[in-house]
Predict the 3D structure of the following.
Amino acid sequence: MRDAFIRSLIQVAEADRRVVLMTGDLGFGVLDEYRKRFPNQFYNVGVAEQNLAGVAAGLALTGHVVFTYSIGNFPILRCLEQVRNDICYHEADVKIVTVGGGMAYGALGFSHFATEDLAILRALPQMTVVAPGDPIEVERLVPQIVRHRGPVYLRLGRAGEKPRHEPGVEVILGQPTRARRGTDVLLLTTGGMLPVALQASQDLQEDGVSAAVVSVHTLQPLPAETLCEMAAPFPAVVTCEEHTIRGGLGGAVAEALLEGGITTAFRRFGLATPFPTGVGSQDYLRAANALDAPALRSLVLSVAPARR
Amino acid sequence: MTDTPVVELERLARAIRVETLHMVSRGGASHVGSVFSCAEVLACLYASVLRVRPAEPDWPDRDRFVMSKGHAAAGLYAVLALRGFFPKTRLAEFYADGGSLYGHVTHKGVPGVDVSTGSLGHGLALSVGLATGAARIGAPWRVFALLSDGECDEGSTWEAALLAPAWKLSRLTVVVDFNKIQSLGRVDEVVPLEPLAAKWRAFGWETDEVDGHDIPALLPLLERPPGNRPRCIIAHTVKGKGVSFMEDKLLWHYRTPRGEEFERALAELERPT
């Protein structure tokens, strides 16, 4: 996803000179090509995230589209008040990009896990919250994020995720994107959980359960009406996120479904413990913290019982 | 005989204090002392230094002013009204139920205000961003930021102070209203800032110290054309300046002047010099 982001950013920076990239001294090796091609559209403010957010807001007020770039919680929670007051309140054209959504930085530890970001960012006024599920979604969404006026939070995974959608898929900012059709349970996923949900839906075939998978890459504003329409025919809905189960996709969808009169069986699949346990890669941590495909399969079977 | 510019500016500074006294008293607000310490700075900026057009507040080539000490909002609103950005009658809407002027600087719906503040330590980074944008587009305008001494406690102030000289933001001028009193006590007792000018100088700023109430000394510093790096003016000021019983008193960071106190303060400000 990280590389898809940089590829897309290079394209938009080429076409639109108002676009600048501002890093908080991170992106070793990743930003080199961008920096080489657009030395005048690149800034490094140093290890100073409050400054990153505030300077980006000021620069955006002069007619620029500013992408801030850093890791995990650094460009959001370290400077949350700058994001709220300087970026959101001024409706500044700042696009905050974080790499390492969820536990993508695996062995680096708790400081590098972004596992409460969606809940916190979606509460901020005027903030559009986007967590793409694969590199194709990233490529399709970046140009739309540039065209969208106002603050955006773009939560990326890491490098090397495989494309999960068909190459011709249509991805629209603000609308969910279908990844797999099914009839018994609707899996709504956000961010890097898309492959986990797809794997689980495949495994569930053995249980005779037909699972549909939809990527809810735009969490805020949530496409509530579309989600209600999608959910209505299903006997069960499960949300999937690499994030605390409190207040993220699960909370947002629960609000939307209840207010929309959809009273289907509903479960949230996410991090249930205060702190993830274990040391290891993202895949290891997902398995250790009941956030992998087998765990999702069990949860689904508890609400959408096997047919055989 | 017409008055000299200095006399005009002194008159404007006094008018800022008078309007602020009315606003703060009427609204039951705080921070009168924080406005009085920077009245001369605001008068010089809005009547002489800033290239702004009261009738065209969004003029693209206007100089940008960032009131980083957002708690002194009454003073900014007063000078904007006195310079014709909006009617003086609107000052009655400060801090009032159903009003339109918050107790901290707010840009939404207020002509002449570009940037909202109120939480300390935000204004300098915003100013660095604005000055960077001006440089990128080759704009003719400059950026002025007014900081309190208290917000020099904020780490974020120093993040921005490190960056501006590194990026050679020569179109940026900071004024620190060094009135020596912060929220809970004297600056030198809470977290000493001195030697403050030496700190800014060491960070790479062209730095001067001046009596912030001495308009003939202050004005030339503000009016100098840009050099080759950002500029900092440490304005030594007196909190509550202009009203004898408010001067250099922590109490008037918070207290609302009412009744006899209000009358005495007004009489002192309106006394002919």
Summary: Chain B has one domain: 5-270. Chain B has a mean pLDDT of 96. Residues 16 and 79 of chain B are 6 Å apart (CA to CA). The two ends of chain B are 18 Å apart (CA to CA).
